[in-house]
Specification:
This protein is α/β, with parallel strands linked by helices and 216 residues long. It contains nine helices and eight strands. A five-stranded parallel beta sheet has the order 2-3-1-4-8, with helices on both faces. The chain has a three-stranded antiparallel beta sheet with strand order 6-5-7. The longest helix is centred in the C-terminal third of the chain and has 16 residues.
Length: 216
């Protein structure tokens, strides 16, 4: 089973993807994580990617597609992928379909988290990531505690692109370039729309029900 998870920046895709990974033994493909790893290498490509991300813009399709090809070529991850933040435009969606078919795999479902812009802003401004274990928290909606995060608050960091101006730019980019892809997957009868304004566990319950229905 391969799954695509959609939603505007701050919709909670990463949180839900992590929960799906843990409960269904899948591998999360986050282009954001892959790009930030390249930034961490401080290469010329990484510096270019950092500049684009900090402006709230998308990197080129060629860069993203090459990263995806490496993932699909890994036999250990065959039909065990959940795509978080990819594809981001119709060209990438069509390319992913081609690559998936080329590697004898398929997309089982496309999950779209629907969230209002006002909630998105608060979710992103409060977002925190643990630099040690990688878990994602939110100081407003899902704060780090001793019970859910043994690493402690000292490892919590915020992304440099998490500010209101960039959030709004990224949201508009999503609405303009990414949202039309939903029609593409709707025509393929793969699209499931989910209330992304609900609590984290309620959203995951919706997702779990969809996955269970596809596994039977």
């Amino acid at each position: 089973m391969n799954i695509i998870l959609f939603g505007p920046p701050g919709a909670g895709k990463g949180t839900q993807a992590d929960k799906i990974v843990q409960s269904h033994n899948m591998f999360k493909v986050s282009t954001g994580d892959l790009l930030r790893k390249e930034i961490g290498k401080k290469s010329n490509l990484g510096d270019k990617i950092k500049l684009l991300i900090n402006k709230g813009e998308f990197v080129s399709d060629d860069i993203i597609n090459n990263l995806i090809i490496k993932i699909l070529s890994d036999k250990k991850l065959y039909n065990k992928l959940i795509f978080d933040g990819y594809p981001r435009n119709l060209t990438q969606a069509e390319n992913l379909n081609s690559l998936i078919s080329k590697h004898n795999q398929k997309i089982s479902c496309v999950l779209s988290l629907n969230v209002d812009k006002e909630i998105i802003i608060k979710r992103v401004l409060g977002r925190q990531t643990c630099s040690k274990c990688g878990l994602i928290f939110n100081e407003y909606f899902n704060p780090s505690t001793n019970d859910n995060h043994p690493c402690g608050d000292k490892f919590l960091v915020k992304r440099s692109d998490d500010n209101e101006k960039i959030i709004l730019n990224r949201f508009e980019n999503y609405m303009e370039k990414t949202l039309p892809i939903l029609d593409f997957y709707k025509k393929l009868n793969l699209l499931y729309e989910i209330n992304g304004k609900a609590k984290i566990d309620e959203i995951f319950k919706q997702i779990g029900g969809i996955i269970a229905s596809l596994e039977t």
